[in-house]
Amino acid sequence: MPPKIEADALISLWFRTPHPYKAIIHAPQFQHEYRQFWRSPTSAPVMWLGVLYGMFGMASLFKIRALRNPNTPEVRATIRNADLYQELAASAAVLGNYMKPKTYTLECLILHAGGSMNNSHNDGWLLMGIIFRLALRMGYHRDPSHYSNISVLAGEMRRRVWYLLYMFDTLGSFQLGLPAMLRAVQSDTKPPYNLFDQDFSIHSETLPPQRPIEQLTPSAYGASKTRLVQVFALAADMSHATIPPSYAEVMELDAKLEATKASIPPGLRFRDLELCLTEDPESLMCRFGLDLTYLKAKTVLHRRFMVASASQAAVTYSRNSCISSAMRTLEHHRTVYRASRPGGQLESVSWYMCFMGTYDFLLASIIICLELARQLNEQPDPETDKIATREDMITALEASKKFGRKRGGRSRIRQTRPDDRKCRRGRDQKGMQSNDDHAGEDTDGQGHRYCSSGSASNRFYTDTGSRRVEDNVVRPTCEQ
Predict the structure, then answer these.
(1) What backbone phi and psi angles, to 5 degrees, belong to 184?
(2) For position 33, what pLDDT does the model report?
(3) Can you give the pLDDT at residue 55?
(4) Sign of the dihedral through C-alpha 338, 341, 345, 346
(5) Labelling 12: which of 211, 296, 310, 319 has CA 20 to 30 A away?
(6) Where is the composition biased (Polar residues) (predicted)?
(7) What is the pLDDT of residue 432?
(8) How many domains does the chain fold into?
(9) What is the model's pLDDT at position 286?
(10) Domain of 121?
(11) Helices and strands counted in the chain (H then E)
(12) Is 172 in the same domain as 98?
């Protein structure tokens, strides 16, 4: 256990840093329990210690991501501490017998999985599978109102946990090309209320009325993203269906997607950064996250029709929607890259922006490559040219590729990024010149590397290995 002054700094950093895990920890209640812990450390429940160590581990990673020079003794010591805290979180889960879940079991495992995903998405996905099963065993798929023994505070936090797991399951499974686990579950859990943590407590007998949709509470972003993810899940099912859906079904879901986008609160709707110069980075990050989710759903829904002949007028809308969404996603890549540079609007959240959009940028690149390859064998579609010319697509691809290179290091994403040489072949045949003017600079003149989407995992942690819950059990300093 670190000294209290260091622990206080890590906990404060965890709550101040934008990330999706904050929603599952009720800040005022945790503050109360944290004070009690330091008054009597030996009386703290083991699972609560697991949550604490998980927060320490994630906060240590946040500290490193904010630094530009990873080759200092202080950074290496912080990496070792982050690794140790993750081991201690896993140890607490084992010592607390996570297979017989109790209070804070899911939160402990979720935070441990969140830290482990920096090293291996595959191992993180396997751990999330255990978490999903435990959530079902604990009845999280049923609304807390069915259980009289669950307090108002615990019930609302269960809703937040369930919808966070649903999003992780849907998006993470698609990212790995694996079937989701929770979508087929019959669930009646209501969405979390649009409330601040200070609006309810352990003493609340009922939840207060929800705040207006215009008030952006911590749950507002999650609620909006959940609605988009639910439509995305249907689009993914259609994309993978063994029996192709009818075009009428596709267009029906497209209309539902547009309606869901229209339901996003005004404060979370995407606007160009030049119109948001006075807004905080976390709000901008949320807007990018929602728009990228919408664009990904649009792309996946209409992806099937990219292989259809351009002469099929019935699917022109689908092809154009797919290309338009992909080009807009790559434009977001450019914007995020530039705004993440020193002094940019997204500098303070650059690490999360890189993590959040990496696979979306990769998917968009693949879509544009498919269209360029198709154009080599068919006459260009005049309708497509209205959205993006061949030159526009190639420029966007080259810029995105250059942004990925500037991440530095060798990453798993870069190794799987599609080779666009075949796409450029058509350009070379026409004698077109490469245009890198929009790709930005490699450094700021002082050797500082800028953020890009080169990898969803931080390259400074690749040598630490991924730890499963059962591995390397280390007994916590304080246990129940």
Answers:
(1) -85, -5
(2) 93
(3) 92
(4) positive
(5) 211
(6) 452-464
(7) 40
(8) 2
(9) 84
(10) 4-191
(11) 16, 0
(12) yes
Can you say how many angstroms the Cα of residue 29 is from the centroid of all Cα atoms in its chain? 26
Domain edge (last residue) among 153, 175, 191 = 191
Looking at the fold, whether 237 and 373 belong to one and the same domain comes out as yes
DSSP output for 98-124: TTS--TTHHHHHHHHHHHHTTT-HHHH
Per the CB < 8 A criterion, the answer to whether 57 and 85 are in contact is yes
User: Residue 297: inside a domain, yes or no?
Assistant: yes
| Residue 453, SS3 per DSSP | coil
Give residues with Cβ within 8 angstroms of 245, minimum separation 6. 238
Q: What pLDDT, on the 0 to 100 scale, is given for residue 62? A: 82
Same domain, 424 and 372: yes
**Amino acid 7: pLDDT:** 92
Residue 471 lies in a domain: no
pLDDT at 279: 76
Domain boundary among 130, 156, 191: 191
Assigned domain for 467 exists: no
Is residue 268 in a domain?
A: yes
Which residues have a Cβ under 8 Å from the Cβ of 301 and sit 6 or more positions away? 235, 238, 239, 250, 253, 254, 257, 321
Q: Are 340 and 451 in contact (CB under 8 A)?
A: yes
Query: At 5, phi and psi to the nearest 5?
Result: -65, -35
pLDDT computed for residue 245 by the predictor: 87
pLDDT of residue 129: 85
Q: pLDDT at position 269, please?
A: 85
Q: Which residue numbers in the chain have pLDDT < 70? A: 66-70, 117-124, 308-314, 347-348, 350-357, 379-385, 404-480
* Amino acid code (one letter) for 137: R
- Are 260 and 160 found together in one domain? no
Question: 89 and 143: one domain?
Answer: yes
